[in-house]
Structures are given as structure tokens and as C-alpha cells.
Amino acid sequence: MQINVDGTLMNVGVLFSEIDIRERTKVIAQQINQDYGTKETLVVLIVLHGALIFGSDLVRNLEMPTEIETIRIKSYEGTSSTGNVTLVTPLPSSLDGKHVLVIEDIVDTGRSIDFLLKELQKTKALSVKICSLLDKPEAHEFPVKANYIGFTIQKNFVIGYGLDLNGKFRNLPYIANLTKA
């Protein structure tokens, strides 16, 4: 399939189907359920907008009581990282004394997660773990590693299932590689 992105023709190649994502999300949820049990409350901190769809699907498979919070950070313009991370919304004030699971769409350079972890260290959370739908190890520039990873991908630009290009294509039910035609 091809799409037009601001006058440039781009190829869209499906990497992970809707079924692949659903099945992997269930496996990750089982791991989280085993690690946290069913008694303690888990604060699920979804990084907007990219992780919203994944976070929603993941939370429906968790067995412990959950509190859902959101945070918005920004580090991309188009297909490239700006090199700067901005906290668009403040951290929730309800993290003190609780276990926090950050849900991210992708660990690319690691800059965003590194920034967010440093911000979370300023809270009094009991623990902080990272769950990322995608991990791109070849692109890592920061020593961060997600505790739970959906899929490992190559150093390509991807869209769909929450991941976007300038705010578009988040609604695709699959994850696709995007390359110039």
C-alpha cells in the first residue's frame, strides 16, 4: 500500500497485524499479572498519545486493581526526534506510595523514557517499571530498557496502532513500516 504524506509518496508495509498485537498484549499482561499479583493497586501511567491504544488494550487484560493516569511528552517532529523532550502535562500527584507502570508506544533513542524516569524519581512512587509496545535497540542512545516489551524492531519509522506521523495514522489497527516509495 502507498500513502501520500505532504506530497511524498510513501510505502506502508505491515510489520505486526492486529491479531499479532492482540496476542502479544495478552502475553505481556500475563507477565505483569505474575509480577504484581492481584492485591496491590497498580498505577498505569499511559504516555499520550502514542501509547493510548496499547495501554487501553493492555489494562483490560490486567487482573489487579488499577488506577489509570496519563502524561504527555513531546520529542518528535515528523519522522525525526528533535533531541529535546518536553513535559506537556505535569506528572499526576497520585503516584506517592504506589507501584507505577509506565506504558510507552516505542523506545527509540531512549531519550523520552530517560527523561520521564528522571521526572518520576522526583516522586515517592514505591516502584517504577516500563512497558513498551515496541523497542528499537539499534537506535538506543540512552541506557534505558523496558521491563516488558511487545516487539523488537529495526531502526525504521513505523506508524499505526497509536504510532503516528505528524499526528496522523494512529488509527491503523496494525503496525506498519513507512518508507519512501
List the keywords.
Hxn_phspho_trans; alpha/beta; globular; Rossmann fold; transferase; nucleotide-binding; 181 residues; 4-stranded antiparallel beta sheet
What report would you give on this structure?
This is Hypoxanthine phosphoribosyltransferase. Belongs to the purine/pyrimidine phosphoribosyltransferase family. Pathway: Purine metabolism; IMP biosynthesis via salvage pathway; IMP from hypoxanthine: step 1/1. The longest helix is centred in the N-terminal third of the chain and has 19 residues, at 18-36. This protein has helices at residues 18-36, 52-59, 111-120; strands spanning 2-5, 8-16, 42-48, 66-77, 80-87, 99-107, 127-135, 148-152, 157-159, 175-180. It has 181 residues and is an alpha/beta fold. β4 (66-77) and β5 form a beta hairpin. It starts with a strand and ends with a strand. α1 (18-36) packs across α2. The chain has a single domain (2-180), classed as Rossmann fold. The model has no long low-confidence stretch (mean pLDDT 93). It has three helices and ten strands. The strands form two sheets. A six-stranded mixed beta sheet has the order 5-4-3-6-7-8, with helices on both faces.
Strand arrangement within the widest β-sheet reads 5-4-3-6-7-8
Average pLDDT, rounded to a whole number, is 93
Helix and strand string, N-terminal first?
EEHEHEEEHEEEE
Percentage beta strand? 35-45%
Say what the CATH topology is: Rossmann fold
Number-wise, the strands total: 10
Overall structural class, as computed from helix and strand content, comes to alpha/beta
* Gross geometry: globular
The biggest beta sheet reads:
6 strands, mixed
Number of helices: 3
End-to-end separation: 10 Å
- Uncertain spans, ≥5 residues at pLDDT below 50? none
